[in-house]
Each structure stands twice: as C-alpha cells, then as structure tokens.
Design goal:
Smr protein/MutS2 C-terminal
Length: about 130
C-alpha cells in the first residue's frame, strides 16, 4: 500500500480474509486513510475494492452512510449511533477514535457535511 501497489494488495488481502483471518478496525481505517489522501480516480477505485475485500463491518457502515434512509430503513443519526454502540470500546477504543477521525476527513472531502455532523454528534456522546 505504501508504495501504491494497490492491484497487488487486494488479492493478498482476499487470501488473508479467505483463510478465516479477520481484518480489524485499525487495518480497515489505515486503508481508508490511504483513500482520503488519494489523488487519482483509478487508485480510488482500487482502494474501494480493497476496503470491500476486508469484509469489515465498518465498510458496510460506510456504504450505508451514502445510501438514503429508505434503503437503510432508518435515519442517518440512528444508523450512526447503532454502529458505534456495536463497537467494543474496551478492546477497540483507540481504533474507534482513529476510525472516526479518518471517516470525518473522508466525509468532508466527499462533501458529505451533514453525514459528518451526524458522526461528530454521536462521537461526542460515545467516545
């Protein structure tokens, strides 16, 4: 990843995940951080494919943020609150804070200010 070898990273990660290994929130967030810094559309596609390959619940959450309430079946604030309530803060407190910071950066860069506000409001209540 550090050297921009995104095409090689996805098969490696898929092998890792298919061998019953689980991607943790720190690894998922580290990949998301590369997406935040990404400058080229082709690399963005590769990074999104890599994030999807993680099969981490944070990816389903992130994708859900970009859908409408009809598809999510709940308002965005409830959706965000439910996700963060499902995090085990005893094990993942630092990872959760890292994820929130990177996610906020990503949402702002994508012009999703209202969604970023929802994440911020929930973060203030839980983190």
């Amino acid at each position: 990843m550090k050297n921009g070898l995104y095409e090689s990273a996805k098969p490696l990660l898929e092998t890792y995940v298919n061998s019953a290994a689980k991607v943790d929130l720190i690894l998922y967030t580290s990949i998301l951080a590369y997406l935040v810094r990404c400058q080229e559309e082709q690399n963005e596609r590769h990074l999104m494919a890599i994030l999807s390959a993680t099969r981490h619940k944070a990816h389903a959450f992130m994708c859900g943020l970009f859908t409408g309430p009809e598809q999510r079946k709940q308002p965005v604030l409830s959706f965000v609150r439910e996700f963060f309530q499902g995090i085990d803060y005893e094990l993942e407190e630092g990872a959760a804070k890292y994820f929130v910071n990177v996610l906020l950066n990503y949402l702002v860069l994508m012009g999703q200010i209202n969604r970023a506000r929802c994440v911020w409001k929930v973060k203030q209540g839980l983190c």
